[in-house]
Amino acid sequence: MDPIRNPYAPGAGQRPPELAGRDEQLTMFDVVLERVAKGRPERSLVLTGLRGVGKTVLLNALRSAAVRRRWGTGKLEARPDQSLRRPLSSALHQAVRELGHRDEESVSHVLGVIRSFAQREAGPTAKLREQWNPGIDVPAVKGRADSGDIEIDLVELFTDLGGLAADEGKGIAVFIDEMQDLGPDDVSALCAACHEISQSGLPVIVVGAGLPHLPAVLSASKSYSERLFRYQRIDRLPREAADRALSAPAEDEDAAYAVDALEAMYAATGGYPYFIQAYGKAVWDRAPRSPITADDVAVAAPEAEAELAVGFFGSRFERATPGERDYLRAMADAAVAIAESGEGVLDDVESVPTADVATVLGKKPQSLSPARDALLKKGLIYSGERGRIAFTVPHFGRYLREHA
């Protein structure tokens, strides 16, 4: 097969040629946009799921839907070592520009509020190089969104933004990727701002994406967050959608898959979107002709697995210290022990009790807390329920047993 015409796109956040299996979320978001623009009550949205299920791709698709309705949009990626003020200010600056409000005085006021919100992080005595310079050429608005209390400031900022958008009969949407990495104060402020905006009926929404434990992070901050957001669990694709993700791009290039090839691909990928793209690319390059067969999949599988071992699994494993790697291997071994004993079913995330990990390593659970906490902060594992942990990456346990 011609590699130049290879349609598959394995990449971080890179939109696949066929966004299969996400129609429900796209349709639901269209309804949210229409309701918010008309001043009707609606909740902000949170997408959760493992690595490689396409959360970032879907987040970008939802943003595109808002842009098509001429909303103002901005996007940021949360980082555990960074306050929310500056990246959010940059995202909102872009959102105001996209909104295209016709009253220059109103726009200047809101931009000045954004500037005051951002510069409050540096403090009044900060040197010039430490002050935020986002390209906003209007002076900061004193006494608005600059109290120093992130919760008060964010409510004031969102209120002014909502008023600006309402003037145009449009809305503003803020998209936050890796939302679980926000600091506790920032999460609390974001929840409070969304709550206030929802009560006021102003057209501002937040769309967040993060790992499966994100709802627990939000709930720990504000008890009402369970009712504040609409949660959507993004999971692997069912067989029909996975087949379409492979077949539709191939058909656009005058190629096809045999039935047994699609069966083999689903068995290999488990329906995870990133794996589908990685295997699809490798199989296309290896297959001599169309239709692609199960034999072609078997020939190309080692190449796809090698690519994943380096770029998807290996890069994450390398981020761990030697002690943390021991903990990850022990998680993988504990999962197999549970499955072999018949006490549980081995799932893709291989959720295991922390006590079982300690047993594998022959140590007390308390002594392993530093390694576990470091892995949680690095986003390699997560805790879906008290006393249990799981990999954030599907098939990571299998990789550890075979390669690490």
UniProtKB/TrEMBL annotation:
A GO term, aspect molecular function: metal ion binding
InterPro entries in alphabetical order: AAA_16, Cyt_c-like_dom, P-loop_NTPase
Pfam families in UniProt: AAA_16
KW Iron (keyword) present: yes
Keyword Isomerase: no
UniProt-annotated stretches for the region Disordered: 1-21
Keywords: ATP-binding, Heme, Iron, Metal-binding, Nucleotide-binding
Residues making up the signal peptide according to the UniProt record: none
Domain Cytochrome c: from-to ranges: 166-317
SUPFAM superfamilies: P-loop containing nucleoside triphosphate hydrolases
PANTHER family recorded: ATPASE DOMAIN-CONTAINING PROTEIN (PTHR34301:SF8), DNA-BINDING PROTEIN-RELATED (PTHR34301)
Protein name, UniProt field: ATP-binding protein
Organism: Nocardioides euryhalodurans
Lineage of the species this protein comes from: Bacteria, Bacillati, Actinomycetota, Actinomycetes, Propionibacteriales
